[in-house]
Amino acid sequence: MMVGHFQEFEDEYLETLYEFHESDPGGLVKTGVLAKRLGVSPASATEMVQRLSKRGFVSYTPYKGVLLTAFGLEHGQRLKRRHRLAEVMLERIPFVGDAHATACRLEHAIDDDLEVALSKWLGHPETDPSGRPIPPAAGVVAERLASEAPNKERSASDLAQGEGGTIVAMRQSEALHDFGLAPGVRLERTSNGFTMNGSEVLLSNDLLAAVVVDVSA
After folding, report:
1. Looking at the 3D structure of the chain, how many domains does it have?
2. Whether 90 and 50 share a structural domain
3. Which tens digits make up the pLDDT trace of 125-166?
4. Domain holding 158: CATH number?
5. Structural domain boundaries, residue 59
6. Claim to verify: residue 205 and residue 169 sit in the same structural domain
């Protein structure tokens, strides 16, 4: 159990360093800045960075800073991708609670198989609920997603004229329920707008973006 917890600590460092990489690719991160972001002491941050350096995840130069290696970058990217996919999933369920904290726990439990399944079920989202980009899949996951049949689930806002699908997931919203939108309802885009189970309905792009449909159903 202790090994698992320590692995999570390492993962948090790598994920945080990936966040710095997103804003400044190739930039060195001072251990003091890293410590402040993580809420730990500078000494603790330096100790962990030295450990990660020995394992090949980072390149560390004392008094200058730390930088993810290619190996560390891939690991951090994978963690951040799984975290943000988890946040999208929690919004779609819908989930009532601290989505960020819950996603932090879930990201460590998501393996390659679940990442592939989540990506397909969520319609391969490009951003999380806060608008932050979801990193692309890498390695085996990227190969599997590229080789498998095209995903049949997508946002209702992406439906082309004449195309329809059955709602499989949606964000919690009183407005959506007021329109009668719910899992199992069929939406179709027509030349005049949309029909819901055959009846015309006027839906805004914001509402449509909150609905996921299965176009194969």
Report:
1. 3
2. no
3. 889 989 999 999 988 999 888 887 566 777 888 888 899 988
4. 2.30.30.90
5. 2-68
6. yes
Distance CA 57, CA 116 (A): 24
pTM score, whole prediction: 0.70
The three state secondary structure string of the chain is CHHHHHHHHHHHHHHHHHHHHHHCCCCCECHHHHHHHHCCCHHHHHHHHHHHHHCCCEEEECCCEEEECHHHHHHHHHHHHHHHHHHHHHHHCCCCCCHHHHHHHHCCCCCHHHHHHHHHHCCCCCECCCCCECCCCCHHHHHHHHHCCCCCEEEHHHCCCCCEEEEEEECCCHHHHHCCCCCCCEEEEECCEEEECCEEECCCHHHHHCEEEECCC
How far apart, in whole angstroms, are the C-alpha atoms of residue 29 and residue 204? Answer: 43
Please check whether residues 57 and 99 belong to one and the same domain.
no
List pLDDT tens digits, range 34-52.
999 999 999 999 999 999 9
Q: Domain check: are 60 and 99 in the same one?
A: no
Fill in the amino acid letter for 195: T
Range 96-118 average pLDDT? 93
Confidence check: pLDDT of 168 > 90: no
Of the three residues 132, 147, 162, the one that is the final residue of a domain is 147
